[in-house]
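User: Second chain of the day. Same drill as before.
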Amino acid sequence: MKTLNILFLCTGNSCRSILAEVTFNALAGPAMHAISAGSHPTGYVHPRALALLQREGFSTEGLYSKSWDDLKITPDIVITVCASAAGETCPAYLGPVIRAHWGVEDPAKATGSEAEIEAAFETAYQILRRRIEAFLDLPWTQWEASGGVALQAELARIGEQ
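Assistant: Same format as last time:
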């Protein structure tokens, strides 16, 4: 059976897409694999994102901010995580894939007290985790039979939660 490859895509690939990649891979079985990338990677993974993942018990070894130009695999599904409602422009992946948008506010841009900034990271993580869990609960045999249109609609619905 072919591995289903999911790309979590953002502009900088320093925070939200990294959180999604690590969380997805920790929760998914061997039939699915997530990667993350950015259209304009920052070149680093945000230290607060790394700390949050470690607190959750996830390995952060080998994580780095990567460009979508350097992908080693072709994704089957691309999920953008930029918060387009906040004026961010999400990159558009140009390959023939199933796409969904799961906009999440960028905690790397959070301001305020240490507690408020930490809360922004925790909120972003919890939103992504709930969506990933909903994704993983989908009845995959049903989606394989119906093709990509139904799956794309369901992924969009998850992104609205």
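The helical segments are 16-27, 47-55, 114-136, 140-146, 148-159.

User: Great, on to the next one.
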